[in-house]
Amino acid sequence: MTKDERLYMTFPNDFHRHPKLRNQPAEVKWAFVEMNGEARIADNDGRFSAEDAEFLWTPEILAALIASHPVRPLVIRDGTDYVIREYSKHQQTKADREALTAKRAEAGRKGGLAKAQASASNGQADGGKQKHSQSQSQSHQTSTHVSESPSLDNRASGATDDQSEPYRSTLASQYGIDVMRIRAHIVDKLGMALEPPDVVNVSIWVLNKIKEPPRAPTKYVLGAITRSPAEVQQYIHESGLV
Fold it and tell me: pLDDT > 90: what percent of the chain?
């Protein structure tokens, strides 16, 4: 099942029984629900300009919300703005969402680094065993066979390249992503030139948004960037990758 990406409001189960709403007319109750919904859609943390509020609801309804309690009304007037009182206690705010995004990005970064380090350690251990086995085999070969094997300089150079780019040689291969192809696509669609580790970070974030891994990870990431460039760009900025 596709993940539901819509925003939601939250109200307590006894919302309809609340003294501030219980005796209000139906249109006032519904206006308060609408106001919370419009606040989530506009991402305004429950603050409406007078022009917007009075365009959406009648002055009588707004006055009823302001008069819903003598001290703690549902809506207050702050200068020229109408503000849902205690909005941050019941609904998600910009600050809440930004903090959650940063937390997830940091967790993803740490998880990616841990996987990369573990894979690199396993690779080095396997490489050591393989080299030991090769050295034993080569000790029984003639000088002609030795001369046909790769030089020590070339093997050392290859090891250095793998260690200098662990994201491309380990984590990227685990997820089956073509780092440089995705990097070029990000440059083309978003105008952002990311470093290979940051490209892997973005790719894993995209892949983690779906429950089942796709058959073609690189193709899926490229498609996600094309379909939702603004969302990907927002993640890059919020994660501090640029």
Answer: 37
Contact status, residue 236 vs residue 192, Cβ threshold 8 Å: yes
Burial class (CB in 10 A: 0-12, 13-18, 19+), 77: middle
Which of 54-58, 102-106, 121-125 has the lowest average pLDDT? Answer: 121-125
Q: With CA atoms as reference, report the closest residue to 48 among 73, 21, 27, 79.
A: 79
Average pLDDT in the chain:
80
Ranges of beta strands (E only) in the chain are 47-49, 75-78, 81-84
Q: How confident is the model at residue 148 (pLDDT cuts 50, 70, 90)?
A: very low
**Region of residue 18 (phi > 0: left; psi between -120 and 50: alpha; otherwise: beta):** beta
Task: Tell whether the torsion through CA atoms of 188, 193, 195 and 199 is positive or negative.
Answer: negative
SS3 labels along 107-129: HHHHHHHHHHHHHHHHHHHHHHH
Residue 172: CB partners within 8 Å, gap ≥ 6?
178, 179, 196, 200, 203
> Within 10 Å of residue 195's Cβ, how many Cβ atoms?
13
Query: Burial of 56 by CB count in 10 Å (0-12 exposed, 13-18 middle, 19+ buried)?
Result: middle
What kind and span of H or E run contains 62?
A: helix 59-66
pTM score, two decimals?
A: 0.43
99: Cβ–Cβ under 8 A, 6 or more apart, which residues?
A: none
In whole angstroms, what is the distance from residue 100 CA to residue 177 CA? 26
Give me 63's structure tokens.
């006055």
